[in-house]
Amino acid sequence: MQNLRKRAKHLHAVKHKLKTRFQKEYISILKQTSNKVQTSLSVGDIVLISLDNKKRVDWPLAKIVEIYKGRDGVSRVARLKTQSVELIRPIQRLCRLETSGKIAEIMREAITTRRVELLSLKT
């Protein structure tokens, strides 16, 4: 039982360090982009959902499941899957994360399976 508590405490500390590092190194440099850049979103992209009442570091992560276009053929809204629910949000309220390769696949898997695991990447 003691070992389990130590493990839980360690995982909590690692999660806190990762969130702090993510906040300092990545989220602080994200920029709000124009609508022209936002239309480059595609199904499977990982995005932050912009919320007015929360700090950027607390915005939820989501995966784009489907993109809906207006009558003029321009993307207007997207259906998103977060860890707990599916939402429909306007494209303008989404902030795309710059992911690639293994990192994007790991993030997609974590959101899809609704579990957070610590993975070590070997380059």
TrEMBL record:
It comes from the Eukaryota. Residues 7-97 form the DUF5641 domain. Pfam families: DUF5641. InterPro entries: DUF5641. This is Integrase catalytic domain-containing protein. It comes from Trichonephila clavata.
